[in-house]
Amino acid sequence: MNTKHSTPLEVRALLFDVLGTVVDWRSGIARQVSSFLERCGVVHVDAADFADTWSRLYDQATDAVRSGKRPFARLDVLNRENLEAAFKAVSIEPKLLPSADLDELNLAWHRLDPWPDSISGLTRLKSKFIIGPLSGGNTSLLLDMAKRAGLPWDVVLGSDVVEVYKPAPEAYLRTCEFLGLRPDQVLLVAAHNDDLAGARRCGMRTAFIPRPAEHGPSQTTDLAPLDDWDVIASDLVDLADKLGA
Amino acid sequence: MNTKHSTPLEVRALLFDVLGTVVDWRSGIARQVSSFLERCGVVHVDAADFADTWSRLYDQATDAVRSGKRPFARLDVLNRENLEAAFKAVSIEPKLLPSADLDELNLAWHRLDPWPDSISGLTRLKSKFIIGPLSGGNTSLLLDMAKRAGLPWDVVLGSDVVEVYKPAPEAYLRTCEFLGLRPDQVLLVAAHNDDLAGARRCGMRTAFIPRPAEHGPSQTTDLAPLDDWDVIASDLVDLADKLGA
Question: What is the Cα–Cα distance from B172 to B186, expressed in whole angstroms?
Fold first, then answer.
């Protein structure tokens, strides 16, 4: 294993970015938004575009928490606010939609499907390492998702446990601390270069896997590793091969 | 299912006391203490008595945290202090023992074996419910234990996440909150009546299973349910039967 550390490899746990890296959020959100719009009789809104808007608002909302502009709030709470903003962006007044239906649609983030290689890759990796998410998702979101999709996590510590969003250093450091491991004993697996950069700054090991369809057919970002990450693999099954799991 | 609640049963998650209910701490600690004493050439100390002493100090130390006499400290930290006290109690000066060896012995709590019915019972229960520990153990203790013993938890939130020890109400309530569930959607499984009483005070459902050998052959406590708990089962396999899992 190619590594930037001079010490021998001693990784005991693998933590995974989830939204984009383990599950395909865009298709899953678009599918559920599409059913919702159909039930409402809305025909002028593209569900995949709506998913992109809703997701972009995630970045803005977590930025506000990271910068201290607002106190920590669970991702379910941020997503619910952003859902209303996403409706406004397509000229639909959310106050005209039943609040309980919006609450239900907000749980779409709990019901996302894994990429085709995720379950088999994670199952193999679990035989050799502690595996868990390191995600912006709150614990119940990650847990509901795992139960529905069969993601075989050993441990689920959502961002509501550490009360901070990646790539803030505490997100990585405090999670390693809960595992009772030094950062260099933990490897972050992500399809996002900025997330890996955050992990490396904290002393964690890093693995990049590309998810070139995460943002749909015209994706331009994160198509390739932008730094010499410790491991580069084509997907989670290839990662299991490369880590001897 | 016999229940004290007027609403229909809506349990979504089962949380388990671990030390005593899922794993046999006394035999496991005695076995590891025995090897340690043998290596040190100590012959006058009974390892099972030593395990009992070490465990009793747990109650005192967590009482001090619950009452606010000292700030929260992880169970690994309390156990390490108590290990020294347990040596003093048998007239062995812990400062004469290598500190690294004591650190290693302290991890005995991470290496406890399940009762014979635990894995099969939990595996069946997991097919129908979210399952996880609700223990005084810190996350890394519970996680290491689960990986070693094959306990198939869906989620592991140690007492270091909520920073409080049972039976303080926050231990139950905050864990339910992380799961995104109301207390009446969560059932505590324990071999200890006082733990179940704590859970019921918070609105959780309760299941008692006896572990009459937890404290060795002369156990006098928790041999039977002391209240009308929602479910009473003989072990975790019987619990799976009774909950239709």
Answer: 10
